[in-house]
């Protein structure tokens, strides 16, 4: 019997192939976009959930307040992990620490040498022997418990192992850096384990010199490590957090008294669930790749709406098509068909369509996956997702979706039409009939409601895209307070041999016409700024201020103007004075009558003198207002060399820089970024959102246009005869166009009115993430609604055009 | 008033040509009441469609008040049609979603009459057609005879000099049929030219002249009344 239904279903779908095609394409695209978004959201939600006992793993973050400044940072002191391990054996299974490596600097690569070949490893860090006890990476080689116990040992990822050793075993092999040689004690599998931890290689902490370790172990205020704990299952994290703060409070007090620091403040540690780390955007020194959950919520809503839109199209077309089949149902009923048989017929037709749409959708997903991965910067696979932890849920969800869609879109015609009384069939559009045979509401109204929902989504997407685009353009054009164009930021080696020759290196770099200016710098705009505790006269009024170290030419190169005082003097080895230049925000914070010449002191006893004030510049991102910044002079040590290159001569300059680089750093590659590109990359997640919104908008517009085209085609077909009569009675092409289009335009307008406040609320929330943002103008809404009106008009016009040119006699003979 | 010369209409469907009209020449004077008769498929409706400018001929000439109609563009033809020709169809061809009042008013809307003028005119015709108490109803709520009265009211609302009626009583019982024919007869007496297609001898008796069509050709023209 069911086979029979399917057979008839196929025949009917073939007979109405243009509608079937519209339906399948619309649904397939909707499902494809839904699957893409689903995979993306799923991959984000999987972060750090795969560790064994992940529910007991926490990151410790620091919340400290000094005088009036409070900061929340992702870093903790070096000594914390060990203190926890030794003092909380009842509560804690393991605690571990991983060194901070500047996550804002993608060029912060390290070079590893093997057999005289130099290999670049993006992220090498330092960690203790508990790292792999807390984070149970799968070890391809070596023993995870013993791997980082000895000095000068290193564990590498399978990617690094493949890059350096190919198919050979890595275990026991030696890798050199500029400083020392490490033995490989383990190889871990990093793939398919989405985590906020990004290291490709990790070195044992006891590779540091004893002196260094002693220094690090004695300071509670030197924040340089991420600390993680794995609590015992029976430990209440809240109780542990309190106990830890009691303990650390006592320890810090002892430390402050011993170090004779006059500080008025507190330090609190908080436990953060490991699975929440990826979604934390508020901490300093955290991974910039972290995602705001609001994006995921927005994407999930969009996905839901896209699927809803596609389903609405299907239901809309199905009800419209069912009109045409009312007579067929009448005949079938006369021949003895009962409701469930009619229902099965419709549901089986629906099942064919949705299954076909799913097959096409999944093929589309597979086909477009590389492009999508490029867009979102991920490595997703459909198969990978199906076989992942949540894969069964995903697969079941897809199958469930097929059935739900089939049933919903099949049930309307099946149930409603099978209720039809012949008299209503003859009267046409009056579809839903009460038990007494009275018309309750027409299907036309239901269809209009569904089309309105589609256009709410479409207009919402269009306006949001316009606003996001405007904001991104606004940020792009906003005055940074310095000139980032044509500035190269070159990462310098962090070793004393190079440091001694840094000035020489810089001098040589400047000896080429294409190079305009060169300077050394410890910090550059857009990269992580340091923080230091300063005070002026009263040592109890300590301020935590942003801290830059820069070279001689820094301000001239970046074209940051001086407001007061002077720039740094020429480097003079005999002059031991520490000079500071501050920005206007710092000047406002310090609140002093005469700034120039005033001293500025640090908590660890370094006194300096303010010699100048520079105009405020955006050294951080536009997510923050310009904060107070103290800039110290650094004549030798630097992380970066900044080079301003003459416009249009980048290639010549680069060739020259490469030559000089190779002379000074034989075993290291040159890594550089253009400063303007680096600054743009600060908003990568926003640009990603812009791209996704743009693509999704196009999809939604396409899907809803497809729906509107199909629906208007069908309704026009329903009204062919009426249109013929109107033409005979003297209706012109314009009269008829207006007649057909105005209904839809009213709906689009209504949808615009409903969508606008929703978009306003959502976009205001998004814009509030930025310290500077555009005003949401009424024009964006007008533009969005107008575009939707034009699109809807064009869609219906394409269909109406055919009808207008039809001879009325043909319309009259149409039944 | 209406002169056709050698009107020919050929339908092509899937490569098969069907000749519906073969060189029909007809002359209709102002005030005439002409009935076109003939067996099914002889081309009666096709002829009426060509005269009503709702279809294009394959060949031939058509003069309406001396104007060469087929040399006009679509807009001119629409203009000519809406000012000069009223239509009555066998199946009424009323618009289901418009009320009786709105159906009758429609030609005036397209002629660009002002609302007040339209109201006056519609009320007048509705009164004459004895449809005043039905004007707010929808076509589906009327009987066949009432629907055809609405269709006639719509056809005459703009006072066209020519009415084309395609089997106006074909879907009606004899009482309602006669009622409609009386209305058409009276209109003719008031000066409206009527060209009607019918199978009914009794309906044909209302006309002054009968044109017999067979296989797309006029085989006979009888004058019934002088």
H and E string of chain B? EEEHEEHEHHHEHEHEE
Helicity level of chain B, as a percent range? 25-40%
Mean pLDDT reading of chain B: 88
Number of helices of chain B: 7
Number of helices of chain A: 24
- Low-pLDDT stretches of chain B are none
Q: Tell me the total number of β-strands of chain A.
A: 27
Main sheet overview of chain A: 6 strands, antiparallel
Q: How are the strands of the largest sheet of chain B arranged?
A: 6-7-8-3-9-10
Specify the biggest β-sheet of chain B: 6 strands, mixed
- Helix/sheet category of chain A: alpha+beta
Overall geometric form of chain A: elongated
> Can you count the beta strands of chain B?
10
Percent of residues of chain A in beta strands? 15-25%
Shape, principal axes of CA atoms of chain B: globular
- The amount of beta strand of chain B, in percent, is 25-35%
Q: Topology, please?
A:
The complex is a heterodimer of chains A (815) and B (226).
Chain A: H1 2-15, H2 17-45, E1 57-66, E2 69-73, E3 76-77, H3 80-87, E4 92-99, E5 110-114, E6 117-121, E7 124-127, H4 131-134, E8 138-142, E9 153-157, H5 158-165, E10 174-176, E11 181-189, E12 201-204, H6 210-216, E13 223-231, H7 237-259, E14 265-273, H8 293-324, H9 326-334, H10 339-376, H11 382-386, H12 391-418, H13 422-427, E15 432-433, E16 439-441, H14 443-477, E17 487-491, H15 496-509, E18 515-521, E19 530-535, E20 543-550, H16 554-558, E21 562-565, E22 578-583, H17 584-590, E23 599-602, E24 607-614, E25 629-633, E26 640-645, H18 650-664, E27 672-674, H19 675-681, H20 684-718, H21 720-728, H22 733-767, H23 778-804, H24 808-812
Parallel strand pairs in A: 7-12, 9-11, 20-25, 22-24
Antiparallel strand pairs in A: 1-2, 1-13, 1-14, 3-13, 4-13, 5-6, 8-11, 9-12, 10-11, 15-16, 17-26, 17-27, 18-26, 19-20, 19-23, 21-24, 22-25, 23-24
Helix pairs in contact in A: 1-2, 1-10, 2-8, 2-10, 2-20, 8-12, 8-14, 8-20, 10-12, 14-20, 14-22, 14-23, 15-18, 20-23, 22-23
Chain B: E1 2-13, E2 16-28, E3 33-37, H1 44-51, E4 59-64, E5 67-68, H2 74-84, E6 85-89, H3 100-111, H4 115-128, H5 144-156, E7 162-166, H6 174-189, E8 193-197, H7 201-204, E9 209-214, E10 217-223
Parallel strand pairs in B: 3-8, 3-9, 6-7, 7-8
Antiparallel strand pairs in B: 1-2, 1-4, 4-5, 9-10
Helix pairs in contact in B: 3-4, 3-5, 5-6
């Amino acid at each position: 019997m069911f086979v029979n239904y399917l057979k008839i279903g196929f025949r009917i779908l073939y007979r109405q192939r243009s509608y079937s095609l519209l339906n399948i394409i619309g649904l397939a695209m909707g499902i494809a976009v839904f699957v893409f978004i689903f995979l993306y959201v799923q991959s984000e939600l999987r972060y750090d959930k795969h560790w064994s006992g992940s529910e007991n793993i926490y990151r410790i973050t620091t919340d400290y307040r000094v005088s009036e400044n409070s900061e929340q940072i992702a870093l903790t002191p070096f000594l914390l992990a060990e203190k926890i391990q030794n003092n909380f054996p009842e509560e804690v299974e393991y605690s571990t620490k991983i060194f901070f490596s500047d996550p804002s600097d993608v060029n912060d690569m390290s070079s590893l040498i093997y057999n005289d070949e130099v290999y670049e490893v993006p992220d090498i860090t330092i960690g203790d022997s508990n790292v792999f006890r807390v984070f149970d990476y799968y070890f391809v080689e070596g023993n995870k418990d013993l791997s980082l116990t000895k000095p000068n040992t290193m564990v590498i990822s399978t990617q690094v192992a493949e890059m350096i050793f190919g198919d050979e075993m890595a275990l026991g092999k030696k890798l050199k850096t500029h400083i020392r040689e490490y033995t490989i004690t383990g190889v871990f599998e990093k793939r398919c384990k989405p985590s906020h931890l990004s290291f490709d290689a990790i070195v044992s902490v006891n590779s540091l010199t004893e002196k260094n370790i002693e220094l690090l172990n004695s300071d509670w205020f030197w924040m340089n490590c991420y600390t993680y704990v794995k609590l015992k299952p029976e430990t209440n994290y809240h109780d542990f957090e309190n106990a830890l703060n009691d303990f650390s409070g006592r320890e810090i007090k002892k430390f402050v008294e011993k170090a004779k620091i006059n500080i008025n403040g507190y330090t609190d540690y908080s436990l953060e669930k490991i699975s929440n780390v990826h979604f934390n955007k508020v901490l300093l020194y955290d991974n910039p790749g972290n995602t705001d959950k609001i994006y995921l919520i927005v994407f999930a809503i969009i996905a839901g709406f896209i699927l809803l839109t596609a389903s609405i199209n299907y239901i809309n077309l199905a009800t419209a098509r069912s009109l045409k089949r009312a007579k067929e149902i009448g005949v079938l009923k006369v021949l003895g068909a009962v409701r469930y048989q009619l229902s099965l017929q419709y549901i089986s037709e629906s099942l064919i369509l949705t299954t076909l749409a799913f097959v096409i959708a999944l093929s589309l997903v597979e086909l477009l996956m590389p492009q999508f991965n490029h867009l979102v910067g991920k490595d997703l696979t459909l198969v990978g997702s199906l076989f992942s932890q949540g894969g069964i849920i995903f697969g079941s969800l897809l199958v469930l979706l097929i059935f739900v869609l089939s049933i919903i879109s099949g049930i309307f015609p099946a149930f409603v039409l099978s209720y039809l009384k012949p008299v209503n069939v003859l009267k046409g559009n009056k579809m839903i009939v009460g038990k007494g045979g009275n018309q309750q509401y027409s299907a036309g109204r239901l269809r209009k409601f569904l089309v309105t929902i589609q256009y709410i989504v479409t207009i919402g997407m269009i306006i949001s895209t316009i606003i996001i685009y405007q904001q991104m353009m606004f940020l792009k054009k906003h005055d940074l307070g310095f000139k980032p164009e044509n500035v190269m930021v070159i990462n310098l080696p962090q070793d004393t041999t190079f440091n001694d020759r840094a000035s020489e290196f810089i001098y040589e770099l400047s000896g080429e016409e294409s190079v305009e200016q060169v300077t050394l710098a410890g910090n550059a705009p857009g990269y992580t700024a340091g923080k230091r505790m300063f005070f002026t006269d009263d040592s109890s009024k300590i301020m935590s201020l942003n801290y830059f170290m820069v070279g001689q030419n820094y301000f001239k190169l970046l074209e940051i103007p001086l407001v007061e005082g002077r720039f740094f003097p020429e480097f003079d080895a005999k002059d031991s004075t520490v000079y500071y230049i501050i920005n206007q925000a710092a000047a406002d914070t310090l609140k002093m009558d005469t700034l120039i010449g005033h001293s500025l002191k640090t908590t660890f006893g370094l006194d300096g003198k303010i010699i100048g004030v520079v105009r405020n510049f955006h050294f951080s991102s536009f997510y923050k207002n310009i904060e107070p910044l103290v800039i110290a002079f650094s004549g030798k040590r630097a992380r970066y060399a900044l080079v301003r290159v003459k416009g249009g001569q980048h290639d010549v300059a680069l060739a020259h820089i490469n030559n000089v680089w190779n002379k000074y750093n034989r075993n290291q590659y040159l890594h550089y970024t253009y400063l303007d590109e680096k600054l743009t990359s600060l908003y990568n997640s926003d640009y990603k959102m812009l791209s996704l919104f743009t693509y999704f908008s196009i999809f939604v517009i396409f899907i809803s246009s497809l729906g509107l085209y199909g629906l208007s085609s069908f309704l026009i077909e329903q009204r062919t005869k009426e249109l013929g009569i109107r033409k005979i009675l003297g209706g012109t092409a314009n009269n008829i166009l207006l007649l057909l289009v105005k209904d839809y335009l009213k709906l689009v307008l209504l949808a615009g009115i409903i969508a606008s406040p929703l978009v306003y609320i959502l976009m205001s929330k998004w814009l509030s993430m930025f310290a500077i943002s555009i005003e949401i103008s009424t024009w964006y809404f007008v533009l969005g609604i107008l575009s939707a009106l034009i699109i809807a008009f064009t869609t219906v016009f394409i269909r109406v055009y055919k009808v207008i040119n039809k001879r009325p006699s043909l319309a009259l003979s149409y039944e | 008033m209406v002169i056709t010369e050698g009107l020919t209409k050929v339908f092509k469907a899937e490569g098969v040509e069907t000749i519906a009209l073969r060189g029909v020449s007809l002359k209709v004077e102002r005030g005439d009441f002409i009935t076109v008769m003939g067996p099914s498929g002889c081309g009666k409706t096709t002829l009426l469609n060509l005269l009503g400018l709702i279809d294009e001929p394959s060949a031939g000439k058509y003069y309406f008040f001396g104007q060469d109609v087929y040399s006009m563009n679509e807009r001119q033809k629409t203009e000519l049609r809406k000012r000069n020709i009223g239509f009555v169809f066998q199946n009424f061809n009323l618009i289901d979603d418009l009320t009786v009042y709105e159906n009758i008013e429609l030609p005036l809307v397209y002629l660009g009459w002002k609302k007040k003028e339209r109201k006056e005119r519609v009320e007048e015709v509705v009164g004459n057609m004895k449809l005043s108490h039905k004007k707010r109803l929808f076509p589906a709520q009327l009987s066949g005879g009432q629907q055809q009265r609405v269709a006639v009211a719509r056809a005459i609302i703009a006072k066209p000099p020519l009415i084309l009626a395609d089997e106006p009583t074909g879907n009606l019982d004899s009482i309602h049929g006669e009622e409609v024919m009386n209305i058409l007869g009276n209109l003719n007496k008031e000066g409206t030219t009527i060209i009607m297609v019918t199978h009914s001898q009794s309906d044909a008796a209302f006309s002054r002249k009968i044109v017999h069509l067979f296989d797309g050709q006029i085989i006979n023209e009888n004058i019934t009344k002088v």
